[in-house]
Amino acid sequence: MKLRVMPAKPARPDGVTARNAALDVVHAVVSGLESGDFSPGERLVESELCLRFGIGRQTAREALQHLSARGVVDLAPNRGATIARLSRADAAQTLEVTELLFGLASRSAARRVADGAPADAILAAVDELDASVGATGPAAFTAARRHFFAALAATAGNAELSRLLEQVRVHVLRAQFGFVTLRRDHARELAAIGRVVQAGDAEQAETMSREHVRGIREHLIET
């Protein structure tokens, strides 16, 4: 794969730490999995990450640690970092966990909305998902999905649930098994779930969320 250097970013304001730069790289790698810029099984070399993203080695190492914690990257002594590959059994197990977590997050968020919690973040994420349907590439959907799950977790108000959602390896699974082709359908389904959450219907939100993941699992079995 030809190395593509990212354009230089404006200087960061005071108080913004290197951790933000590392998380920018994390999001770029995750998004790049679906756009084809990165592939499961590909090695991630620190020096190439530094050149590509205009960062230092310490920031690159921190980004790789974050990616490893999320299950996106495998780190091996003396071998460096490699984007994870999943067997079909691993993928099925990942989706089993995802179904439970997504269902719980949607139910919890809808219940809190029903109790009076603001749903502004959910509505903004739904608008972004709707807009992504008309986009020509996967980047808009990848960002919209990330913002939707962040909004869902924040609205649910459960820090442990947020942490667990970040560690599920759906990003690798989507890239490896070709789910990028289903992004428009998935955007519509997630937007519909968001509207139910905004309405405060906890039971329906959980049901639709779990059905969404079951549909992904059925596609995995069929491919």
Topology:
Elements: H1 18-35, E1 43-44, H2 46-53, H3 57-69, E2 73-76, E3 80-83, H4 88-114, H5 120-132, H6 139-156, H7 159-167, H8 170-176, H9 183-199, H10 202-222
Antiparallel strand pairs: 1-3, 2-3
Helix pairs in contact: 1-3, 1-8, 2-3, 4-6, 4-9, 4-10, 5-6, 5-9, 6-7, 6-9, 9-10
Secondary-structure element order, N to C:
HEHHEEHHHHHHH
What is the β-strand count?
3
What is the makeup of the main sheet?
3 strands, antiparallel
Low-confidence blocks of residues: 1-16
Number of helices: 10
Outline the structure in words.
The structure is a single chain. The protein has helices at 18-35, 46-53, 57-69, 88-114, 120-132, 139-156, 159-167, 170-176, 183-199, 202-222, and strands spanning 43-44, 73-76, 80-83. With 223 residues, it is mostly helical. The chain is globular, with a radius of gyration of 18 Å. A three-stranded antiparallel sheet has the order 1-3-2. The two termini are 26 Å apart. Helix 4 (88-114) packs across helix 6, helix 4 (88-114) runs parallel beside helix 9 (183-199) and helix 4 (88-114) packs antiparallel against helix 10 (202-222).
Key terms for this structure?
223 residues, 3-stranded antiparallel sheet, disordered N terminus, mainly alpha, 68% helix, 3 strands
